[in-house]
Write a structure and sequence with these properties.
By secondary structure, this protein is an alpha/beta fold. Helices cover about 30% and strands about 25% of the residues. The chain contains 13 helices and 23 strands. The strands form 4 sheets. Strands 3, 6, 16, 17, 18, 19, 20, 21, 22 and 23 form a 10-stranded mixed sheet that branches. Helix 8 packs parallel to helix 10. The longest helix has 21 residues. It is globular and about 90 Å long. The termini are far apart. The relative contact order is 0.17.
């Protein structure tokens, strides 16, 4: 009888270091509260999704998108009858995502000729597109004018450009202007639009109204992003309505709409805010109340201007997940254990501002130790989460980050690694691809190699 050698256990020499700045008990450092167990997304196993579509993987839930939209739309329409939502393409411009919002009744809000082309290619008519942004090409403006888009003028040079196009075409072009102004407790986005306090906005309105080729039909303001105080929108609504009434009284012009922009937050955890999002972020009904209470001034008016909302983040963020996987780990000289995930800051641009929820698909046992989640990039700054403790996480464990539906798709980088597939979990529980994973062919599709640079080894 032969004796088989025993299987060697994996051994790694420990580091003994002082643990500080962690919640501790007699059992050692506690597990961070946001490192929680969860192995499903909308009833589907995280492991099953990863096996079918690969890792990393972006996942979106159709039911969450539609439910969030309908709740927000209802909150505004219950208090003001003339409301139009516009889906912000820059927040997430995947065709499948935009199509859901358009099915729900949203028009498109775009900020570049690229996004304008995306909306038109998807089948959105020009007269259901709001064209914002600080840079609009002459050709895109000609097209937007021809297709009767909502054009929001950002500066006087753009105004002159549009007027010149209209003069040559011998037409009158309806336009709106974007305003910026001071909001108590918020940073003023003075780079965009015409300033209200200096009289610049009034001068812009006067120039349009006195033009033979322009017609002022609306005003617009976007006061910021992730605005946690609903009363900021109450201030914005008051300033916009006051300006609306000033235009009406001073020039005898009645505008068709007031666009309140976007910036309403999702239930995400903003860095530097120590309360959880469930407490720190107000419900959409409070934002709707702060805005629509100011619009009650039009209750007895024959003409009620349309209230437009360009809500993006609030509508999509919580519908988005990123599945990633532990590829390897090692002890650092500091005593922390570095876990390398197959997703990094290349896919999560907004990680610099938000503390995402990290959900593990395996229940962990053992003493917790200080840890850090690094991405796969050859960059020292590729850090997804630091300053937490956890028992040892085995290689192959799936970790889901949430909510990541806003801006991470549009701002992701093709840097060092291919970008992953994007999947939609439909309302009926089935899954479908919204975007295939990149490969060498798709990345090099637009590249050219001149003949004189070809070589043989």
């Amino acid at each position: 009888m032969s004796i088989q050698p025993s299987k060697k256990l994996k051994y790694e020499r420990p580091n003994i270091v002082r643990v500080s700045n962690y919640l501790t008990s007699k059992a050692g450092p506690a597990i961070a509260a946001d490192l929680e167990f969860n192995d499903v997304i909308s009833g589907i196993s995280v492991e099953e999704l990863s096996e079918k579509y690969g890792s990393p993987l972006f996942v979106f839930c159709e039911k969450t998108i539609r439910d969030t939209y309908r709740r927000a739309h209802k909150a505004f329409c219950e208090n003001y009858e003339n409301v139009q939502f516009a889906w912000s393409y820059k927040t997430n411009y995947l065709k499948g995502i935009c199509a859901i919002f358009h099915q729900e009744g949203a028009i498109a809000e775009v900020v570049s000729d690229f996004e304008y082309e995306k909306a038109r290619a998807l089948g959105v008519p020009g007269n259901r597109i709001i064209y914002n942004g600080p840079l609009k090409s002459v050709d895109s403006l000609k097209r937007a004018i021809r297709e009767r888009a909502y054009i929001h003028i950002d500066n006087f040079d753009e105004m002159t450009m549009i007027e010149e196009i209209a003069r040559k075409e011998k037409i009158i072009v309806p336009v709106a202007i974007r305003l910026n102004f001071h909001i108590l407790g918020a940073t003023q986005w003075s780079r965009f639009g015409f300033n209200l306090e200096t009289g610049q906005a009034l001068e812009a309105a006067r120039k349009i109204i006195s033009s033979d080729h322009l017609e002022l039909t609306g005003i617009h303001a976007h006061i910021g992003t992730f605005m946690m105080d609903p009363t900021s929108y109450e201030q914005s609504a008051e300033k916009l309505i006051d300006f609306y009434l000033m235009i009406q009284n001073k020039f005898g012009v009645r505008l068709h709409y007031i666009d309140m922009g976007g910036g309403i937050p999702s239930k995400n955890n903003l860095r530097g805010v120590y309360q959880p999002a469930e407490i720190a972020i107000k419900n959409i009904e409070e934002y709707a109340s702060c805005i629509t209470k100011k619009f009650k001034i039009f209750e007895n008016s024959e003409h009620r201007p349309k209230l437009i909302l360009e809500t993006g983040r609030h509508l999509i963020d919580e519908a988005g997940f990123l599945i990633t996987q532990v590829s390897n780990s090692k002890l650092l000289p500091t005593g922390k254990r570095s876990y390398v995930l197959d997703a990094g800051v290349n896919l999560l641009y907004t990680n610099a501002w938000y503390n995402f929820k990290f959900q593990i698909n395996k229940k962990l046992e053992g003493i917790a130790e200080p840890a850090i989640f690094n991405g796969p990039l050859c960059m020292n700054i590729d850090i997804l989460k630091d300053g937490f403790s956890t028992p040892y996480i085995p290689v192959g464990t799936h970790i889901t980050l949430h909510p990541v539906g806003a801006y991470n798709i549009t701002q992701s980088m093709q840097f060092i690694r291919y970008r992953p597939a994007v999947v939609l979990i439909k309302e009926n529980g089935e899954t479908c691809l919204l975007k295939r994973a990149e490969n060498l062919e798709s990345i090099e599709f637009d590249e050219l190699l001149p003949d004189e640079l070809k070589f043989e080894l």
